Amino acid sequence: MHCKLISCIVFCYSVFVSLQRLFIKFLGLLVGILILAYLCIVQFSQIPGRDETKAKLIHNAQQGRISHALMFAGAEGSGNLAMAWAFAQYLFCSNRSDTDSCGECPACIKVSKLGHPDLHWAFPVVNSEDIKKATSNDYLLHWRTLLQSNPYIRLYDWMETLELENRQLEIRAEESSEIIRKLSLKAYEGGNRVVIIWLPEKMNASSSNRLLKILEEPPPGVVFILVSEALDSILPTILSRVQLVKIMAPSTAEIETFLIENFGINPQSAADASILSEGNMAKAIHAVKDKEVDPHFDNFINWMRLSYVPNIPELLDWIDGTAKSGRENQKNFLQYSIEAVRKCLLLNFRINSLVALSETERQNTFMQRFPDRIHGGNVQRLIELLSDAMYHIERNGNPKVIFLDTSLKISEQLKMPVR
Fold it and tell me: What is this structure's pTM?
């Protein structure tokens, strides 16, 4: 009798703890939605630069010459998602001008809060224990919270939000079916309908093929906006059905001004972040929010030092820590390392004008000495090693094995004499 009573109490307590955790998580998401963050960009005027692109989009909208399927193509941090969001608001706006949406009408308010019933979103997701055939509908709460806090998001930010850093996100066939189902219904407000697909390169073959017909012949009043960071990864049959809109990266000066105006930071910090971002607004924003110019800088220095010796015990500790950082973070770090090697080569050749370095990096003792180890005899091999490591990480290779092997090979190259 006593055993049953104790078991019952333990079970009730475990249920209570689980419900408490779910409530706290839900409350945090709810607060994030109710508070519209300072970076919520939904108008063209709030996106720095790209005036020619904005003017062309506005002109086409006014003339009624909008393609039924657009591809906003730009590098990570170019602002192509922010531009797509702003353009969607312009299409819905009931009081738009020759330069922008009004930002005040009911339609604009709904779009800005990501609550317009005729604005549909699709983005990479992943199945979970509770959701076996996941679509974007299952993650809209997370999506709204993230996008309203910062429209210059990266795939890594989305994975962090979902707490799925080691999972591969995709746009699956179920998503395409859901888009087709939504568009088979009438518009809620009787006007335009817009579907924004973020990162269409994440669509698998089945998903892409299922969308082909509706992309080519959508229902009246429907506009597809595909927001891509990797055109080469999209099926040619998709590309042939869309009109390409290239979103160029913002200039260093535009990023610097944006950071000062939106974050109120001092000009030197804004300059450092803008220079290091190299046109990537997402990278610049994270540099400011994280209070560091680049989170990978110190890690790169440690890796090169430990590899050069090589100090095996400390190197193994470093590899253990890196292996726990998540697959997407590892890929970003390797990409940063490739850029760092390129910069070191230019510094070795004294071509400083082509190297984007912050004042902190320029004054770093390591960066004053290490570039001498990068030269014409080893730079190509070093970049190959880092690229190969990233390739294997992307394909779910064991990060400990990959980083150890790469480190030992880097050690050989760093000791190679100048030719």
Answer: 0.77
